[in-house]
Amino acid sequence: MSTPAPPRAPQYILLPVSPVFIAISLLLALLLNLLPWGTMVGIPDFLAIVLVFWNIHQPRKVGIGIAFLCGLLLDVHDATLLGEHALAYSLLSYGAIAIHRRVLWFTLPVQAMHVLPLFLIGQIIPLLLRLLTGSPFPGWWYFLESFVAAGLWPFTVWMLMAPQRRAIDRDDNRPI
Length: 176
Hints:
By secondary structure, this protein is mostly helical. The protein has helices at about 20-35, 45-55, 65-80, 85-105, 110-130, 145-150, 155-160. The protein is globular and about 65 Å long.
């Protein structure tokens, strides 16, 4: 006698994502990155988190070009080497698009483990460029930001997927 398979969480059909919602979420993430966090350790790159989310969930709508433009905006704001963030975000987006089909099969904690290397790569690229231009090594606490970003992944997925979920209690007077 075999044991029954454990019950899985119900899968719901999602509503189409609005391009306006994608743009607003990217703009809000950019604005969070522009806040004067100072030298606080562990503040994640909010724009990188949102870019990876949209690259995994909507790779045809948010691609490498948008990531490159967002990176250029951040480079201009931070007055860093022009193209530093643009290169990092482009590689980050390429990696997210490359694994987007595989990541969606896993639970949220396992997804966070899959996107952690992407966030680390997104941090290592600007660090290497800064080290090549003569900046000092910031210390190992610098990489805490990637682990915080991976820890925020389940909350990010829950928050950005909320407008696409259908209501569980169906109402015949509501179209969807």
